[in-house]
Design goal:
With 146 residues, this protein is α+β, with helices and mostly antiparallel strands. It is built from 3 helices and 6 strands; from the N terminus they run ααββαββββ. The chain starts with a helix and ends with a strand.
């Protein structure tokens, strides 16, 4: 009788251990969202370092708010935002971008310093970007460059 209880205990332990290994290998929705959030921040950083708007255009919702040092200020469609930012980076050619703050939540934001060259002069601008998780994906809701 004692052997039977030991075998059941071993069986229970092995089942519980196997189940925990199986569940540990499957990322939860929250972990997947965090990875995607880190990806959006990485893509934003690469965009502001290179000027390649294509890296973030997939994150543009149907309406995005832009406020730029050039006087652009308002809501624009994703397509309009693409070309506005493309033109901006042609005038203010990116040198580097560095985050100064990031908030990782369902309505996250980031601030940073954008270094650029304009007419052979180097300058910097403060950047504020707001992101939100909506419709099962991350979207950029606001970009401010001042």
């Amino acid at each position: 009788m004692k052997k039977f209880f030991i075998n059941i205990n071993i069986l229970f332990f092995l089942t519980a251990f196997s189940l925990s290994l199986l569940l540990a290998g499957v990322p939860t929705q929250e972990i997947q969202n965090q990875k995607k959030e880190l990806q959006i921040f990485s893509d934003i950083e690469r965009t502001f370092s290179s000027g390649n708007i294509s890296l973030i255009s997939s994150y543009f919702p149907s309406q995005i708010y832009l406020s730029l040092s050039t006087g652009v200020n308002g809501f624009y469609s994703g397509n309009q935002a693409y070309y506005i930012l493309q033109n901006y980076f042609q005038v203010y050619q990116p040198i580097a971008f560095k985050y100064t703050q990031r908030s990782e939540s369902d309505n996250g934001f980031a601030t940073g310093v954008f270094s650029f060259e304009n007419r052979n002069k180097k300058g910097t601008a403060q950047v504020f970007i707001s992101i939100e998780y909506s419709g099962a994906r991350w979207k950029i809701s606001l970009i401010t460059i001042k």
